[in-house]
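Could you help me review a protein record that somebody else here produced? What it holds is a sequence and that sequence's fold in token form. I need someone to confirm that the token line plausibly describes how this chain folds. Take the sequence as given and treat only the tokens as open to question. This is what I was given:
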Amino acid sequence: MQISVSYLTSFYSKEKTINLITKTTADYLHADLMDGLFVANKNFNINEIVPLLKETKIPLDIHLMVLDPIIYIPILKELKPEYITFHLEATKDIIKTIQVLKEAHIKVGLSLKPETEILELMPYLSFIDLVLVMSVEPGAGGQEFLPNTPERLKTLLNYREKYNLNFKIEVDGGINNNTISLIKEADIAVVGSYICKAKNYELQITKLKNIINDIDYLS
């Protein structure tokens, strides 16, 4: 399992938090971008996001919690992110948004709000690279892990195996040293406040990776 670190909730400024994350062994920097429309909070200006993230030394994993995500792609592609994930409910033209991301040579992620049925994702799974399972309600950091998340993860794992698909599964929300074992079969875990509200970011990442390694050893 890889670790994608979100800077959404931190004791420090965005700039300092991102700088601290880039000095760790995190696999990805997870950028949660909220427009105040799809979710209640707004935390970015599109013209400021490129300067903020362009010097990042680790791969970018961008999570768009915005309406009409397609309008942000022309600017965000300058960052050359590995993934851009958008929400199924955020656009009326999912296929077109997928196509625009593919044309920009960006891996495509789709996410569902926790109450949305996974079946709604099924028509798109052969076209995308990542499914983001929200284990909290999108829009704010520091929330508690939703208990139905492992069941939703299992549903996606079974579907991926049954139809021999290649998308990765990422879980986002409430991940810490107590909950990471509940999603042990995920490919990527997004971790925010557990790391970014600690004094030593690398120590927190090491703790999580040790738990993951112990699970792999025992299984």
Summary: Strands lie at 2-6, 28-34, 60-65, 83-87, 107-112, 130-134, 168-172, 188-191. The radius of gyration is 16 Å. The chain has a mean pLDDT of 93. Residues 2-218 form a domain with the TIM Barrel fold (CATH 3.20.20.70).
